[in-house]
Amino acid sequence: MKKILLLILSFSLFITPVYATTAKESILIEFSSGEILMDENSLEHRAPASMTKIMTLLLIMENIENGKIKLTDKVTISKNASSMGGSQVFLNPGEEMSVDDLIRSICIASANDSAVAMAEFIAGSEEKFVKMMNDKVKELGLKDTNFENVHGLDTKNHYSCAHDMGMIARELLKHELILKYSSIYEDYLKKNDGSSIWMVNTNKLIRYYKGLDGLKTGFTDTAGYCLTATAKRNGMRLISVVMGEETSEKRSSDTIELLDYGFNNYKLKTIFDINTKLGTAKVINGKVDEVELKLKESVTDLINKETNSKYDHKIKINEIIAPINVGDTVGVLDLYKDGKKIKSIDITVKNSVKKANLWDFYKKNFKSIISGNV
Questions:
Q1: Regarding the domain delimited by 273-371, which CATH topology (the fold level of the hierarchy) does it fall under?
Q2: Which of 17, 105, 107, 162 could form a disulfide with 241 if both were Cys (CB 3.0 to 4.6 A apart)?
Q3: CATH number of the domain at 25-266, please?
Q4: Whether residue 48 has a cis bond before it, omega within 30° of 0
Q5: What's the CA gap between 116 and 109, in Å, rounded?
Q6: Gap between the Cα atoms of 159 and 48, Å rounded
Q7: For 211-254, how does the pLDDT look when each residue is reduced to its tens digit (9 = 90+)?
Q8: Catalytic amino acids?
Q9: C-alpha–C-alpha distance, residues 331 and 291, integer Å
Q10: String of b and e for 119-138 (b: at least 16 CB within 10 Å)?
């Protein structure tokens, strides 16, 4: 019996401990790949509280990026928006606030009144904006989320899960502008009457966890304490979600444990930098006969720090006919890991090439005659 016990104890020394949170559900995701590094009951339907605003902010960011709204636009606060309970910055009916101010108050103070004001500004009403939110859920292929409002106050049939919140956060983080706001710990919001509201972020980890620059807390009696967080170290960004925590201290400590686990055990390995020289390719009917090739993005692989793998690649280039512009896809680099293809990265051209005119063809033919290459 003693020998068996000794064998069990010695075997356990070689097992890497996996942290179990006190959350009702949690998840840890690597941003660039979307790979899930840890998962605890992440598909269970649960009230998301103010983490709902991650989707609200995603739609705001999309509208800014496509030019439909600008940060300097003025938003007139409606009576409906000003009447929102819960977390708020006490906006008054008829008051005008900039889009920039409203985003800051949503990210820092989790302002329900600001969230509704932005929804009405973009869609005309909160109801129409909520439809946009649920349409986005479907577009992202998420199955376990349904929104009934833009702020996250408990409402029947308003639910999400750690998995879906993490994936919505990943989509939001593709808009780097959000980090300008989510990384702020405290700030002042100037009102039209000359007064100021002091805003303090409930995500205390922004102050002391290395690399953490967002994203959104949440709390209601039904939801418990929730937090979707993101941090970046050594070129790798992680997203963690905890839901249904008993205290704000536990949601912080569990978030730290999840992020520490990811940073301690994984890293992004750069296989090809975006500036890697890929050679040249022939251009048909162009002002120049050849063009340099380049990757559209760096080729990376998420790996466990204790593993060693062998990488190989194959490059396929399409027929390139001028005109061709930087950003146009002209081929693909297939990356292989231990003999298995794991990803494909598009290849573009380093410089744009215009279509040759008659004078260009004449000069080329004349040059060929002079050099004897005819």
A1: Peptidoglycan synthesis regulatory factor (PBP3), Domain 2 (2.60.410)
A2: 162
A3: 3.40.710.10
A4: no
A5: 14
A6: 6
A7: 999 999 999 999 999 999 999 999 999 999 999 999 999 999 99
A8: 50, 53, 110
A9: 13
A10: bbbbbeebeebbebbeebbe
